[in-house]
Amino acid sequence: MQKQHSASMHHKLSGNCDGVPKENSPFINSAENDKNNYDGTNMALFEEEMDRHPMVSSLLDKLANYTNLSQGAQEHEEADEEEGTKKKTVKSPQMGTFMGVYLPCLQNILGVILFLRLTWIVGTAGILESLAIVGLCCSCTMLTAISMSAIATNGVVPAGGSYYMISRSLGPDLFLLGLCFHYRNWGVLLCPLTAIFTAERKEDQLNALLNNMRIYGTICLSLMAVVVFVGVKYVNKLALVFLACVILSIISIYAGVIKSGFDPPDFPVCMLGNRTLQNLQFDKCLKTEIINNNTVSTQLWRLFCDGPELSSTCNEYFVNNNLTLIQGIPGLASGVISENMWSVYGPLGMLVENKRLPSVGGIDPAKDIYLPYVVNDISTFFTLLVGIYFPSVTGIMAGSNRSGDLKDAQKSIPIGTILAIATTSFIYVSGVILFGACIEGVLLRDKFGDSVKGNLVIGTLSWPSPWVIVIGSFFSCCGAGLQSLTGAPRLLQAIARDGIVPFLQVFGHGKANGEPTWALLLTAGICEIGILIASLDAVAPILSMFFLMCYMFVNLACAVQTLLRTPNWRPRFKYYHWTLSFLGMSLCLSIMFISSWYYAIIAMGIAGCIYKYIEYRGAEKEWGDGIRGLSLNAARYALIRLEEAPPHTKNWRPQLLVLLNLDSDLGVKHPRLLSLTTQLKAGKGLTIVGNVLQGTYLSHEAEAKKAEQNIKSMMATERTKGFCHVVVSSNLRDGISHLIQSAGLGGMKHNTVLVGWPGTWKQSEDPQSWRNFIEIVRETTAAHQAMLVAKNVDSFPTCQDRLGEGTIDVWWVVHDGGMLMLLPFLLRQHKVWGMCKMRIFTVAQMDDNSIQMKKDLQMFLYHLRLDAEVEVVEMHDNDISAFTYEKTLVMEQRSQMLKQMHLSRTEREREVKFNTLLILCSAQLIHDKNTTAHTTMNNKEEAGPDRVHMTWTKDKLSTERNRNREPNANVAVRDLFNMKPNQSNVRRMHTAVKLNEVVVNKSQGAHLVLLNMPGPPRNRGGDENYMEFLEVLLEGLNRVLMVRGGGREVITIYS
C-alpha cells in the first residue's frame, strides 16, 4: 500500500503530460488525494478548505513517501497518458556518496587524454606551462562544482539532475544549455572511439589506416548502441569493472615511475644528429653493418640513400651526422626534469630535436620533413593545448546525473563531486611532474610513438606490463563511451519532454518502459559524425566549447541566484560566493577564446540561433528561474529610474492604452484595432489592452479570465506585444475611468488612449454609450494624455496586407504638440504602410500669407527630418449657408426630441408607480370594511403623523394624472417646431461642414486621413451636439484617425 502511495505521489510530482515536473506548488500538488481525507471536529474551522489546502500531517506523510525515479531502466517508467503505459512501483534509492557520486565522476573525468595526450602536452608545453594548463582547467571545474553544489542543494533534484538544475535556474530562454549538455555527452563518446584505434600519421600515409579506424569505430559504436538499447542495467553492472581497470592503470603508472628510479626500462630512441627518427621501417639504428666480414647497408641506409649500394648518393644530413641511441625513459634519477621544464612550441612540420646532441648541417630542415623524421603534425602553441586538454577535466556532473539513485542527493553531490575533482587534479598534477622527470623530451613530443614503433610511452613506463595500460585505457574509453551513450539520449528525452523546442518532441517518446529509443538513434548518428572525423585533436576543441558554455551557464545561474537573494534560494551547501561564481564564469569565457577564438564564436553563434528559435517558436514555461528574477529586479530598477523625471521629448513615443469592446461571447469586436496598434508600435514601447466588464468581480471572475484569455489570443494573432488588463466594475463609466487613471506602473504608464469611433451612436437607444465616449475624451484631456480615435476601424489593413502606392494625409488645423507629424512617420516604419507617401495640409485664414506659410512649413519639416508634401488650403469667410442653418436646426430639434423622449419615459415610470399605488389603496379600503377594528384603525391613522389617509378613487387618480400632461405636451410640440438654432452651434456646424468639404475634396482617395480632434464642450448639456459635429466632420471619409494631443511637445527639431 505504501509503495502504491509513493508511486502515485511521484506521479504528481512528475508533472503533466509533457513530463515537466509541477513546480507551481511548494512541495506536492495533492489536492485530488486529500478531498475526502478529513474526518473530525478538531479542525472544523478549516473543513471547507480541505480540498485545496491539505492538512500538514497529510503533506508531511506524502513528502516522506516521495521518491525520485532511478537513473537506470526505470528512470522514465511513469504514467504517460498519451502512450497508455502503466505506472510501475519504484524502489527507494540506495546509493551513497562513494558509489553514487565519487566513483562515477572519477570514471568520467579520467579518460583517454590522460593516456594518449598528457605526455605530449608535457613535452610540448614544458612542466611549468603544463602545470599552468592543468591548474587553469582544474580551477575552472572546481569553481563550477562549487556553483553546481549550491544549485543541487537548493531543493529536491529529480533524476537527470544536471539538466534539471540548470534549466530551472536559467529558465526556458536559456534552454539552449540543455542542448549543449547533450552535445557534451555525445562528445565524450567521440573521443574514446576515435582514440581507441589511434594510429595517426602524416596525411599522405594515413588514408588507409584512418578508413580502417572509421570502420572499426562504426562497428564498436553499433555494438555499444545495441547494449544500451537492450538494457541500461548491463551498462551499470559493467561500470565498476571499467572503473577498476582505470584505477589499476593509474596505480601501475605510479608503480612504474617508482621502479624507474632504480631500474629504468630499456626503451631506446634512435637519433640522427639531434633529430628523432621514426623506426617503423628499420630494426637497427645503424648506417651499415658487417655480415660475413662484408660491410653492407642497413634498412635505415635505404631510407636516406638512392639504393642499397654503399656508393649510392645519400642525404647530406645523413652523411654528415652520426646515429645515436638514447634511453627514452631514463628514470627519476636521471635529472631529465631540468630539460623538460620549458616549452618547445613550433609550426606544422617542425622536426622533433634534442638540442643537447651535436648536429652538422641541416640549415633548411623543411626539405627533409618527408624523410623518416618525427615531426609536428600540427602547429603547437599554449592556447591550442588548453583546448585539447580541457575535455580531460570534464565529467564533473556525472554524480548529479545520478541524483535519482542517491539516498541524500543534497549531501552526496557536493562532497562526492569536489572530492573527485580534487583526486583527479592531484593525478594530473603529479602526472605532469612525474612524466617530465622520467621521460626524455623528444619521446614526450613524439605524439604517436613513431620513434618507438608506435608503442604507448605510458604503457612502457607502467609496471608490471604495458598490457595493463592498453587494457585499462580500452575499458576506460568503453566505459566513458557507454555512460555517455546512456546519459545523452535521456538528456535529449528530457529536453524533448519539456516541450520547449517543437521539432524535438518526437524524441521524447521511447519504449514502453521509458527507454529513449529515438533519442538513442539520434545520439548514435551524431557520434558517427565524430567517428568519421577520426581525429582527436580536431574533435577536442569543439567539445571544449560546449563544455565551457555549459560550465559558464552553471556559474552564471549560481551568481544570479545569489545576487538576487530570492526567498527560495536556501542551499544547504554554504561554501559558495557570488564572486567565486563570477570568477568561474570568467575563466570559462576566457578559456573559450584562449583555446580557439573561432570555435568559440561558432559555438556562441549556434547557441544564439537556438536561443532565438526558442524565443520565436518555443513554448512558454514558468520555472521560477533566476533569469526571471533578474528580469524583475532589472524592471524594478528601470521603473524607479523612470519615475525620477518625465521622458524627454526626444524619447517620447506613444505608450498606448487600447480600449477594446467585446461581444456577447467575450470575443474581440474589432481586431483591426490591435492591427493598427501593432503597425503603430512595431513592438516598441508600452501597449496595454484594456476592457471593462459590468458587474462584480466575485460573480464575474470566470468571465474576466475568459475575456483576458480571448484578448491575449487575439493579441498573439495580430502580433501585438503588450499587456492585457480586464477590469470588472459596477458600471462601465467607472471601470474605464479606473483604467485611464491607474493602468501601467510607475514610469511605464500610458500617455495615449486608442479607441474606436462609436459608429452606431445615433441608432443606439441607450445614450450612455456615446456619453461614455465623451467622458473618455474629457478624462484623457484632464490627465494630459493624447487620444486617438479610429473611424471605420474594421476597414483598416491587417498586418499581412501591403498597401500600394498612396498617401497618408495629415490635416494640421491646430498645433497639438506635433503628434500629427509623428504618427505617419511611425506608421511608415511598418511594412504595411511602407509604400505610402506623407502629405500635410494646413488651413489658412483670410489674413494669412499662404505662400509664406507653405515655405515656413517646408522648413519646419526639413528640420524635423520628415519627408512630406506640403499644401496650404485657404478657407474663406463665406456667409453661413442655408444648409448649415438647416443642419444645425435638425441637430437641435433632435436633441430636444431626445430630451422629450427622456421626459416621456419618466412620465411612463410615474404612471406605473401611480397604478401600483391605486391597487394598494383599493386593497386597503376593502380590508378596512371587513375589519371590526375599523374605527380604532382610523383613530390611529389620524393620530400618527407618518400615516397618510388614503381616500383616492379611480376617477380622482385619473384626473390628477392627466391634469398637467396635455398642456405640457402641447407646449413641447409647439416649441419644437417654432425653435431657432443657437448661433454658437451654427458657427460650429459651419466649421465642420466647410472643413469636411475641403478634406473630402483633397483626401477622399487617401489610404489614411489624420486630423485634429476638437474637444468636447465645457457645458455637458451640449454633448449630443458635439457628437453631431464630429459626425459631420468625418462624413464621406473611409479611414480616419482623429488625433487629440496631450498638451506637451512630442517632436523636436534638435538632436
UniProtKB/TrEMBL annotation:
The chain crosses the membrane at residues 96-118, 130-153, 174-195, 215-232, 239-258, 378-398, 418-444, 464-482, 518-536, 542-564, 576-600. It is a multi-pass membrane protein. This is Solute carrier family 12 member 7b. One of its GO terms (biological process) is potassium ion import across plasma membrane. One of its GO terms (cellular component) is plasma membrane. InterPro entries: AA-permease/SLC12A_dom, KCL_cotranspt, SLC12_C, SLC12A_fam. Residues 101-265, 375-657 form the Amino acid permease/ SLC12A domain. It is found in: Cell membrane. Keywords: Cell membrane, Chloride, Glycoprotein, Ion transport, Membrane, Phosphoprotein, Potassium, Potassium transport, Symport, Transmembrane, Transmembrane helix, Transport. It comes from the Eukaryota. Belongs to the SLC12A transporter family. K/Cl co-transporter subfamily. The keyword Transit peptide does not apply. Residues 1-35, 71-90 are annotated as: Disordered. GO terms for molecular function: potassium:chloride symporter activity. NCBIfam families: 2a30. Gene3D superfamilies: Amino acid/polyamine transporter I. It catalyses: K(+)(in) + chloride(in) = K(+)(out) + chloride(out). Residues 671-789, 793-1055 form the SLC12A transporter C-terminal domain. It holds the Pfam family SLC12. The keyword Ion transport applies. It comes from Poecilia mexicana. Its main location: membrane.
